[in-house]
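We modelled the chain as a single entity of 161 amino acids. Its sequence is:
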Amino acid sequence: MRRTILVLLCALGLFGTAIPSHAEHDVPPPRQCTPEVNAKLAQIIASGSHRSVDNVMVCGITVSSSHPQRAGSHGSHEILPLLVKFPDGSEHLVEVVTNDDLDGVVTAPPRAHVFAYGQAFIPEGGHFAAGIHDVHCSTHRGADNGWVVVEGAKYPKTCHL
């Protein structure tokens, strides 16, 4: 019996290396922006946690034009400031952060309808209650392919080679 278990564990170990390190998949954008789309983000904000959470969706309207963020070690980024409505009736400012190299340069005018899917984070201080970044094809284990949709235009266009 022990030998059988050992053989099975060894086989799983050998075959496990052939499995991709993460199993990303595509999640489609919703058809319309409702407070329920933002429910998971609302829970993250309410929890008081400052840990990042993968696979979170947000939608809202830009309160001003997008603007570039100074280039850092991860390249240049654009910030899309959204007013987001939550299921409890509250509204909060949320920043969507795009990476120019991975997403293309994503810009938005004021009052643009925006959807985003990626990794949620809670910034330390500032005007925003939360943010969504990693809105590009999956780059780490556990993350689905992310995206941003501005007035119906999706970025990145596809994550398939």
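As a brief sanity check on the tokenised model: Confidence is low (pLDDT under 50) at residues 1-22. Helices lie at 2-16, 39-47, 100-103.
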